[in-house]
Structures are given as structure tokens and as C-alpha cells.
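Run Transcriptional regulator CtsR through structure prediction, thanks.
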Amino acid sequence: MRSLADKIEQYIKSMLKEQQTATLELKRNDLAQVFQCVPSQINYVLGTRFTLEHGYLIESRRGGGGYIRITKISMGQDNELLRLIDQTANKLISQQAGEGLTDRLAEEGFLSSRETLLVKAMISRDALPVELPLRDMVRANIIRAVLLTLLRKEFNEEG
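Sure, done. The structure for Transcriptional regulator CtsR is below.
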């Protein structure tokens, strides 16, 4: 059975698909009522599943009549990959952030489902038996290598 967070995530994603634009505005309290949960549960889903690594930009206004604006960001082929490479340089990347970025690369058509599973296996904590923060640094280097490979001409010709 799916968790409440999974249901909220799928609901928001389905609403985004129905939109004619890449932006969706919701009221946190209204969404909480739909799922009979507290607004902090909505915040949790937004903060963990609709991050920049997953390809979303979240704007939030609190208070009476406040809203959440969710924008799906599309990757422009080389420019976005170069930006991601720059962002991962000398950074630490958690497993959750790495998997989110990998899922985003798959959603945007940069990775097949098989390649996505392989990358996730390579960056999992089980495959990197070193202590933090070294593990997050190694994970960032692996992701950076994947991004650099995606830019290579021969990779794009085979795909």
C-alpha cells in the first residue's frame, strides 16, 4: 500500500500534467483537507519530492490566502547539463538528492530506465562503504562523471 506522502506526490504530479502550463498553484490547507492531514505533511512532500534536484521550483506564501506555486523545470540539453555539472563540483550530495537528480534525468529523457537503475545502484550507500562526508563526496563525483558522459558526442549518437 502506498504511503500518504506517495499519494500526495502522485496527486500533485497528475494535477501538473493536466495543466496547460508548467506551473500549478495550490492552497496548502485545501490540499491538506483533501488528504485529511496536517499542512506540515504537505510541506514534507514538497520539501522532499518537489525539489530542484527533482526538477521543480517551489514558491510559497504563508498566511491567510497563502498559496504554493509549483513549477516543473525542463532541462535544455547542454546548458542544463553544464549547470548541473557546475553545481556538483566540490559539493556533497546525499543519496536522496542523488536519486532525485537521477530521476529527473530519466524524466527529461537523458537516461533510460535501465541506466537510471544502474546509476542509483552506483550511488547507493550500500555501494559506497565509506563514512560520511566522504561517501557524499564520492557520490557527487560519480554523478558528475555521469553528467559529463551525457555531454559526450558518442553517447548522444548511440542513444
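Residues 134-151 form the longest helix (18 residues).
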